[in-house]
Amino acid sequence: MDAIRVRGGRKLAGDIQISGAKNAALPILCAVLLSEGPSLLRNVPGLRDIDTTAALLRFLGCEVVVDKEAHEVRVPSAKLSRVEAPYELVKQMRASVLVLGPLLARHGKAKVSLPGGCAIGARPIDQHLKGLEAMGAKIRLERGYVIAEGPGNGGRLHGADIAFDLPTVTGTENIMMAAALAKGRTTLWNCAREPEVEELGRVLNKMGARVDGAGTDVMHIDGVPELAPFDHAVIPDRIEAGTYLIAGAVVPGSDVRILGAVLEDMEALVLKLRQAGVQVEREGEGIRVRREGPLKPVHVTTAPHPGFPTDMQAQFLVLMTQATGESVMSETIFENRFMHVPELSRMGAQIEVRGRAAVVHGPTPLEGASVMATDLRASASLVIAGLMAEGETEVRRVYHLDRGYESMETRLRAVGADCERVKNAEG
After folding, report:
1. Which of 89, 224, 231, 340 is the most exposed place for a label (fewest CB within 10 A)?
2. Residue 118 annotated as catalytic
């Protein structure tokens, strides 16, 4: 397995270009199932999750061409030969469940394995199934699969009023795609408001759907008989941008500009960085981050967008190890998202986990060590810790990292970090 080796203490300076948003690209790629194609998605990051989605679409019968150099995915045809998403593919990535809504809406039936992904806690799909049942689908669970049929043994779904019990990104997206081809109007209440959900709404409307309110908590979707293919460029990845903002703040004297990032999509994170004493300003086509003096402790509670994103909790926690005083990170989204804490403790961090909160005592100098990545964002947090640690840090099992960050070691090295990828590392 690959590892990332980092030698810490070097100031970072220069520009980092942000990739297209993985969490926007994945549902848009599933949306190709709503028409026969040909569709073109541009500004696509070169990530494992994109490859997994492409493999799943090919299994269903689509023609898919992934051009990593051009950052494009072309789907010349979406004529399907099957409506089953097998465990072998779905287990690699939870977002694979996003084929359920499109398959059911266009073909009247679907068989999709229950999803996998990072081991950061239970992430049920009950809200997806509840919404589809309200639209007339008949659903049963059988041997780890969701088996769904439209009304009347595979007929067309119908519009419905659906209130989510909690904001769910993939749940909102799945029902959006299903409703785009349903008969009549669907109204969704308590929707996820993430920029990636709004982006999916834009693409569906390009295809001829009638989606109103994407990016707000109430959405109205008037179904249409058929949809057209699309040509679309993906928005920048706000989580990748936020990760590099923090990377640019951990070593005093660093001065980094994050190109292509949309500040408005990261307001909760930027507010907390400024409270901690980090200088974050819009500059030209990017966001400039600088850190000069000591950091102040900050309390953070994760929340659905527009709150502080759970996907930034691990990275911000690392930054707080250098703040003078006590910081508290409260995790309200996932119940098992502090698995990076023992690895950070091996590097000298003083962190207490108290239920769904982590109390960080700082500042503590970090020392390089061999550490193991447990999930996608934890991987990034350990690389960031290595940037400021004394000596050498080796982050193992970075296949997690490759699910969400394209060539992180190359981008950090371009702004002065001493880091490299090590092939075939142990464990």
Report:
1. 231
2. yes
* Of the candidates 361, 296, 299, 283, the residue with the CA atom closest to the CA atom of residue 332: 299
Residue 231: the pLDDT is 98
In tens, the pLDDT along 295-317 reads: 999 999 999 999 999 999 999 99
Nearest-CA neighbor of 269 among 305, 309, 327, 303? Answer: 309
Instruction: List domains and CATH numbers for the chain.
Output: 3-18+236-422 (3.65.10.10), 22-233 (3.65.10.10)
Contact 421, 21 (CB under 8 A): no
CB half-sphere exposure, 341, CA atoms < 13 A: 21
Strands (E), 115-157: 138-142, 145-149
Of 388, 348, 291, which Cα lies nearest the Cα of 8? 388
User: SS3 breakdown of the chain: % helix, strand, coil, rounded to 5?
Assistant: 35, 30, 40
Helix residue ranges per DSSP H, 297-407: 313-320, 341-346, 376-388
Task: Label residue 323 left, alpha or beta by phi (over 0 means left) and psi (-120 to 50 means alpha).
Answer: beta
The DSSP string of 34-57 is: GS---EEEES----HHHHHHHHHH
CA dihedral 401, 44, 104, 214 (to 10 degrees): 100
Nearest to 340 by CA among 297, 301, 385: 385
pLDDT grade, residue 284 (50/70/90)? confident
317: which residues sit within 8 A by CB, 6+ positions away?
327, 329, 340, 341, 344, 351, 358, 360, 381
Considering the candidates 30, 62, 118, 419, report the single residue annotated as catalytic.
118
Q: Note whether 383 and 128 are within 8 A (CB).
A: no
Phi, psi values for residue 245, rounded to 5°? -60, -45
141 and 113 Cβ atoms separated by less than 8 Å:
no
pLDDT for res 90:
81
Beta strands in 159-244 (DSSP E): 161-163, 185-189, 210-212, 218-222, 231-233
Q: Which residue has the tokens 């709150």?
A: 307
CA-based nearest residue to 46, from 380, 385, 411, 312 = 411
Taking each helix axis from N to C terminus, what angle separates 313-320 and 238-247, rounded to the nearest 10 degrees?
10
What would the pLDDT profile of 59-118 be if each residue is shown by its tens digit? 999 999 999 999 999 999 999 999 998 888 887 777 789 999 999 999 999 999 887 544
